Amino acid sequence: MGFVKEFREFALKGNVLDLAVGVIIGAEFGKIVNSMIADLLMPVIARVMGGGVDFSNKFFALSDKVTATNLADARKEGAVIAYGNFITISLNFFILAFCVFLVVKAFNTARKRFETEKAAPPPSGPTKEETLLTEIRDLLAKRA
Which of 39, 76, 92, 132 is the most buried (most CB within 10 A)? Predict the structure, then answer.
């Protein structure tokens, strides 16, 4: 029974829950960014690069047996170097990394703003100079 209790304590810690939420949100964020890349950016980049070029079907055939014009069929016929797929995945990575950078930058900016907006702590008491001036004032008041 000790193993089950230990596992339950581990699974119910806040860090595990936070990690699970982060993974789930990260996966969904990745889907959004991948859709932005595949559906919005890559068609524009392909159009600029050569009038509607589909990078995902660009490959070098390593065998004379490969006669297909799309990557899926070419892989069935023989060995190919799918450089277009590599280009697409590399661009996806850099765009995704840039988006994550922007999210982290926005988070850090907001955190700094909230930290500066916090109320300053109340003064800890009179300074030495204020204490001395108070004593002098009290002594002068007794003389008069």
Answer: 92
